[in-house]
Amino acid sequence: MSEMTVVHREHDAFAVLVRGHVIRVDQPYSAGGTDDGPTPVELFVASLAACAAHYARRYLVRRGLPADGLEVTAGFAMSATAPTRVSRIGLRLRPPVPLSSADAEELRRAVEGCTVHNSVVDAPRIGLEIETEAEAA
Fold first, then answer.
1. Which among 80, 109, 79 has a CA at the least distance from the CA of 93?
2. Other CB atoms closer than 10 Å to residue 60's CB: what's the count?
3. Residue 123 class from Cβ within 10 Å (0-12 exposed, 13-18 middle, 19+ buried)?
4. Rounded-to-integer distance, Cα 113 and Cα 73, Å
5. What is the pLDDT of residue 136?
6. Is the pLDDT of residue 137 over 70?
7. How far apart are CA 52 and CA 45, in angstroms?
8. How many angstroms separate the first and last alpha carbons of the chain?
C-alpha cells in the first residue's frame, strides 16, 4: 500500500508529504484560514481533473493526435444537507484539435477509465485508526 503523511503547519494549514513532494493545504480567508493552498476538497476535485487530463493525453498520443494545449476544467458543488460532501462534479475537456464524434466518444470512454474516476464510482473502503500517546511512543 502506498503511503503519504499530512503534517500540521499552523492554524488550518497542513503539509501533505507525497514521495518527496510537499503540497500545502489550507482554508480560504473566508473560512478562517490563511489561504496558503487549496482546500482538501479542492485537491479531491483537482485529482479527478488531473487524472482525466492524464487519460485524455494518453488517448490523444495513442491516436497520433496533438496533446499540447489540452485543458480540463472542473466545477463542483457541495451538498446542501448533512453529511457535508461534494455532491456534483462537472468536467469539461478541451482537446487542442477538433475531434470527430467517433473520436470524441472514444476519448470519453478513455477518460472515464481514469483511476480516480473509478475510485469515486466504486468507492474504496476507508479505515481509520486512532493512535493514543501510549501507542505512538
1. 109
2. 21
3. exposed
4. 18
5. 52
6. no
7. 11
8. 23
* Listed residue (68, 71, 59) closest to 105, CA to CA: 59
d(CA 57, CA 95) in angstroms, rounded, equals: 9
- The set of cell numbers assigned to 21 is 513532494
Alpha helices in the chain, H assignment, sequence order? 40-62, 101-112, 115-121, 133-136
Query: What is the reported pLDDT for 135?
Result: 57
Per-residue pLDDT reduced to its tens digit, 6-47: 999 999 999 999 999 999 999 999 999 999 999 999 999 999
8 Å CB contact between 96 and 66: yes
Q: Residue 1: what pLDDT? A: 83
Q: How many CB atoms lie within 10 A of CB 55?
A: 22
